[in-house]
Amino acid sequence: MLWESLRHFEKRKVKDSNEALRKLLSWGGFLDEFEEFKKREELYSFGIGKGVVLYKKQAERENAELSILVAKPCIEYDSFDGVLISIFCFLSSPGDKFSYFQSLSRFYRLMNSATFRERLVRSESEEEVRKLIKKEEKDLE
Fold it and tell me: Are 61 and 52 in contact (CB under 8 A)?
């Protein structure tokens, strides 16, 4: 379940997407890959629409790890729908394709819900977010 993979949550002011990416990568232990992510971002946007950016990576890990940074206030980003970004996420999933796509699928299903996104942005703690994700995943089953 995705709620079990939540490792970090923070709500903070960020000046741009570079600052958000650096913070997310540092939490996941991938800060040394910042330039690689920026090069990939030049090829395609990590914005998935509806005010959400998802940086993702297959990694040699046993379990998926999710980090969420809520930007207050929202910031501009080159997303396909042009919506200001309030939710930045980093998802690292195990190297096998099944686990990777399973984690992505769960993530997209959650973020597709406007109610979930609104509650996420209003959340104040990691524990509150974990409970929110757990409840939403249960409701999706």
Answer: no
